[in-house]
Amino acid sequence: MAARCSLSSSSLSVHGPLRHNKPSKRLAPCLPSAPRPGAAALRARAAKLPPGVEAPRVQPKLSEPFLGFTQTAEIWNSRACMIGLIGTFIVELVLNKGILQMIGVEVGKGLDLPL
């Protein structure tokens, strides 16, 4: 007798007896060649939850992040940007100089190109 293989869920019928398609040459050793006359029916029923147990909520289906751009990361990035911008304004106000003047770049002379 040929070796037996496990049946996949696609070969099981919920409401009727087992049905067999014509097996290919490759799968022939794993599947019986003809259906048995006394094939048993298979019925599947879901178990009921005991009282006091809640069914889990459906998990949200999130889209795949594009190159790491997720909504949470973008929210935190915008918050950090706002804190940095307000901090820059406070430093400029306290020191009475612009950021470029503080790092040594001369401003206010334009491009200083002779015409």
Automatic annotation (TrEMBL):
Regions of compositional bias (Low complexity) in chain numbering: 1-13
Q: Where is this region: Disordered?
A: 1-30
What Gene Ontology cellular-component terms does the record carry? chloroplast thylakoid membrane
The upper taxonomy is:
Eukaryota, Viridiplantae, Streptophyta, Embryophyta, Tracheophyta
Report the protein name in the record: High-light-induced protein chloroplastic
